[in-house]
Specification:
The protein is α/β, with parallel strands linked by helices and about 260 residues long. The chain folds into two domains: about 90 residues, Glycerate kinase, MOFRL-like N-terminal domain (Rossmann fold), CATH 3.40.50.10180; about 160 residues, 3-Layer(aba) Sandwich (glycerate kinase, domain 1), CATH 3.40.1480. It contains nine helices and eight strands. The strands form two sheets. A six-stranded mixed sheet has the order 3-4-8-5-6-7, with helices on both faces. Strands 1-2 form a two-stranded parallel sheet. Helix 3 links the parallel strand 1 and strand 2. Helix 6 crosses helix 9.
């Protein structure tokens, strides 16, 4: 659909039986302690898991073109519990893990291995392929020998008949186009939950030879990006990363490194 996670959550709250504070209604008046792992920008409690235990302030559905079946569900949805409703009085909410925790952990891991690490503060968002191009260009302009750590969540607008892949594979392949020919440059893009889109792969680790390796199989990186088929291309180049489920989700991590010149 191209909608970001905040827009998706506003729709989910309206059509779910537990999101948008509806679970708090079901559990009221029991005391509830919620320990949350944040997978949303800004770590807003009402957006984590679409807020089953949090009042859904400003949760109106998107005023954009939506599939007919979604519009039908929205038309039959019931009002959400409002801010200040009694059902929230006994809910105690605490965030125990965030994207920033993962970024800092990645930087610490790099430093313990003797590398310099730089955590990039800006949240990574927008079109996945555009982000991949942008990050690869920034990596090539940067000082060598430094591990750059980015984090966030990008989007992919799918064609009518998409191929195999996910947003991290799309980002990684776009980055590979920029890195081609740059020996020793690497970029890793992965979902922290171990899954990227509707695939078993977490993402991909690409380098300056990714495009050339897949080209020997007759594949075009530009065509794969246009078809949202980055997974097929990256399987041929040998660059997919498969971790299995990690048991957590704090959005996506991107790490970049190139050697000293």
């Amino acid at each position: 659909s191209g909608l970001d996670i905040a827009a998706m959550n506003r729709i989910r709250k309206r059509v779910s039986r537990i999101k948008g504070g509806r679970l708090a209604e079901m559990l009221h008046p029991r005391p509830v302690h919620c320990l949350a792992i944040s997978d949303v920008p800004g770590n807003e409690p009402g957006a984590i898991g679409s807020g089953p235990l949090v009042a859904a302030a400003g949760s109106e559905a998107e005023q954009t073109a939506l599939p007919d079946f979604v519009n039908r569900m929205l038309a039959h949805s019931t009002p959400l519990p409002s801010v200040g409703a009694p059902c929230f009085d006994a809910v105690h909410f605490k965030i125990i893990a965030t994207l920033e925790d993962a970024k800092q952990a990645a930087a610490r891991a790099a430093r313990t291995r003797g590398a310099e690490a730089q955590v990039e503060p800006k949240f990574l968002e927008g079109d996945a392929a555009e982000a991949g191009t942008r990050l690869a260009q920034a990596l090539l302009r940067s000082r060598g020998g430094v591990v750059h750590v980015w984090g966030g969540e990008t989007t992919v607008r799918l064609p009518s008949r998409p191929g195999r892949g996910g947003r991290n594979q799309q980002l990684a392949l776009a980055a590979a186009l920029e890195l081609q020919g740059h020996r020793g440059a690497h970029l890793l893009a992965v979902g922290t939950d171990g899954t990227d889109g509707p695939t078993a792969d977490a993402g991909a680790l690409v380098d300056g030879g990714t495009v050339a390796r897949a080209a020997t199989h007759g594949l075009s990186a530009a065509e794969a990006l246009a078809r949202a088929d980055a997974g097929t291309f990256l399987e041929a180049s040998g660059d997919l990363v498969n971790t299995g489920p990690t048991g957590t989700n704090v959005m996506d991590l991107v790490l970049g490194w190139r050697p000293h010149t």
